[in-house]
Amino acid sequence: MIHQWMLNKVGVKNQAAENGKEAVQIHCSGQGFDLILMDKEMPLMNGIEATKELRSMGICSKIVGVSSHSEEKQIQEFMEAGLDDYLVKPLNMAKLRSILDNIM
């Protein structure tokens, strides 16, 4: 929810998903996004599974993983799922702006 608030604050239209399965279903319904902020720890389908599924569906949106994990092995596993970038929580406005600057 904090990420959604931050995106709203900088004027970015966004949609939140409660879990990874919902994120995949949103894309299956035909919606598309320039940026996907993917939390690693989610119920029903975690961020790694959701990212793999989105990539297997041909989704080319920039996917940035966010997690409180900073161990190299966990970051590598998430990146290998198909992330374009990875940021350690907490996500702040400076980190968010750097992401947005790269896609706008």
UniProtKB/TrEMBL annotation:
Tagged with keyword ATP-binding: no
Pfam families linked: Response_reg
GO BP term (any one): phosphorelay signal transduction system
Keywords: Phosphoprotein
Protein name: Response regulatory domain-containing protein
Organism: Arachis hypogaea
Residues carrying 4-aspartylphosphate: D39
Domain of life: Eukaryota
